[in-house]
Amino acid sequence: MVKLSKDFVKTAKICGIDHKLEQEGHFYVDKNKITSEQMPKGISAKTTETKNGIKAEITVEKGVKIKEALFFCFGISGKDDKQTIETRLVLEDDSEVEILAHCSFPNAVNASHKMEAKYEIGKNAKLVYKEHHYHGTSSGILVMPKLKVDVAEGGVFLSDFILSKGSVGQVGIEVEVVLGKNAKSEINSKVFGKGNKDIISIIDKVTLEGENSKSLVTMRAAAKDGGRVFMQGETYALGANSIGHIDCQEIVSGEGSVAKAVPIVEVSSDKARVTHEASVGKINQKELETLMTRGMDEEEATELIIEAMMR
Amino acid sequence: MLEVKNFSIASKEDKSILLDKVSFGVEKGEIHCVLGTNGSGKTTVAYAVMGLERYDYVSGKVLFEGQDITKLKPHERAKKGITIAFQEPARFEGLLVSDFLRAGKKDATALEIKKSLEIVGLKPEDFMNRSLDDKLSGGERKRIELASVMIMKPKLMILDEPDASLDIIVYNELYDLMLRIKEELNCTILLITHREEAGLIANGATLISKGKVVATGPFRQVMRKYCEREGRRASCMAFKNKMRVGLANADSKN
Fold it and tell me: Residues A226, A196: contact at Cβ < 8 Å?
């Protein structure tokens, strides 16, 4: 049984979990300090602590399929800390891994979290990446993650990004995915901006480079009580028979709230097809009426509808 | 239990009159049909009783258990014991069926939710944790809608064309279900329909045409008027036969 250091327990708490080190693969960072690191057989990790964060290079070896999700915690426990994370994740051919990343900044007042990440998914490899954020309650954080993903032939990239609890602060997320032949990606983003300090921008960009590649970009956002949300879904279809779809829904509720959706679709193969749908505006009247006829007032009903959409 | 008195409402857009001095009453414990052809104003009556803010109020009153509820909002009427199952139930992305049912009864136990789903013929284990979105069929959503109004144990349940788009076998099951609901909950049902077969379970009826009440009273009497006015002789003949069969079946069960 591994003895847990105080620092480790503290970081685990920042990420909102009661960790018992039962997860074989994990990686905990508080600002620039790696408080615990352990990888299962078949995964190698080189990590370095830098002035304001860490650098990590993780490789999942060819053919290795990790059954239990790896848990990454990138936290800032201080109020004003600046953190920069640089990661390179390589999935060699035919490997599979799921990563659950928690980015948590519960005490942030004037803090920042920047991330530069590059994921390389090999032939027929599969990465499931789930990132959940918690930014505390004072909207005092600037979060700027940039992620580039290359998916080789037959590879799969599935991503969920959720930022729906607590206050958001200022967030600018850019995800760029390039898909090879027969590769597939699904990117889901859900963000909830509540209050006039919450300013969110998300750009999810997919290039369907290889033939028969497929992508789905799903974006869900709610802007409430002065929150501002901008979502841009981009899909560029180059490969023959590639198919893409962008689905964006944003709800606006309360004075001063602004939601903006920009879909960009470009097709440069006469055998490819990309579709998009977007809905931006007030809460669906039928949903609202239904819940009101069940006894909820307008505010309660609005809360429930947004909460459900953000799940 | 419910009295609608000289009630008039107008369209928010062009201010045209949608319901014109509508008056009818519903007794406690009865199944009362609002009959009429497509576009006659049946659903408008249902929404007006529920207080949905889709129209401009012109004049008249809606009384529930003797109390004037004309100015009350839908959630306030719901708290007094009125609710509605919509003809086309809403879809909610991400909302679990169990959470939707709890919207009507915050302290509903898992057992109550399970029972509500079972009554409408759905296996709880297959539906409780599913999202109420477009992956469910229309029939499944209608059943969940019924379960969600049932769990509230309302005094007055408005059912807006629950029998629309159903084939004969299914709507016979539906009418049986309505009788069971009425008996189990000891509630009153305002049934919006254009089906003659509703006579198998209904006590009273109100016939609406072009936003006006043409007749109100015992179901058979109103139905006769409906058949005469709307040129529905063939279907009404069929209805009489079904009524005979229905009554005979009821007799044989007794």
Answer: yes
Partner residue facing B78 (CB), from A286, A295, A310: A295
Total beta-carbon pairs less than 8 A apart between chain A and chain B: 64
Beta bridge partners of B189: B31, B157
* Chain A residues whose beta carbon lies within 8 Å of the beta carbon of residue B94: 308-311
For A220, name the nearest residue in chain B, comparing CA atoms only.
B93
On chain A, the residues whose CB falls within 8 A of the CB of B95 are 304-305, 308
Measured between beta carbons, the chain B residues lying within 8 angstroms of A304 are 95, 99, 103
The conformation of residue A69, written as its DSSP 8-state character, comes to P
Closest CA to B73 of B90, B92, B57, B89: B57
If chain A, 311 residues long, is cut into consecutive pieces of 10 residues, what is the mean pLDDT of each piece? Answer: 53 58 74 86 93 94 93 83 94 96 80 93 97 72 92 97 78 96 95 87 96 96 91 96 94 91 95 94 92 95 89 75
pLDDT tens track for A154-188 = 999 999 988 767 777 888 999 999 999 999 999 99
Residue A293 with chain B: CB contacts under 8 Å? 50, 52, 74-75, 77-78, 83-84
Q: Decide if B213 touches A, using CB distance below 8 A.
A: no
Rg of chain B in Å (alpha carbons): 18
Cα A152–Cα A154–Cα A160 angle in degrees, nearest 5 = 80
Q: How many other C-beta atoms can be found within 10 angstroms of the C-beta atom of residue A248?
A: 24
Q: For chain A, where are the alpha helices, taking DSSP H only? A: 6-14, 285-292, 298-309
Q: Please tell me what DSSP assigns to residue B196.
A: G
Give chain B positions within 8 Å (CB) of A292: 73-75, 78
Nearest C-alpha in B relative to A304: B95
The alpha carbon of residue B190 is apart from the nearest alpha carbon of chain A, in Å, by 15
What does the alpha-carbon distance between residue A235 and residue A204 come to, in Å, rounded to a whole number?
8
Containing H/E element for B177?
helix B168-185
pLDDT band of residue B233 (cuts 50, 70, 90) is low
Amino acid B36: pLDDT: 87
Nearest CB to B92; choose among A298, A308, A310: A308
B142-166: pLDDT as tens digits: 889 989 999 999 999 999 988 776 5
Does B227 score more than 50 pLDDT? yes
Closest among A220, A148, A145 to A179, alpha carbons compared: A148
Q: With 80 as the cut, is the pLDDT of residue B137 above it?
A: yes
ipTM: 0.89
Q: How far apart are CA A293 and CA B128, in angstroms?
A: 21
User: Contact A184/A213 with Cβ under 8 angstroms?
Assistant: yes
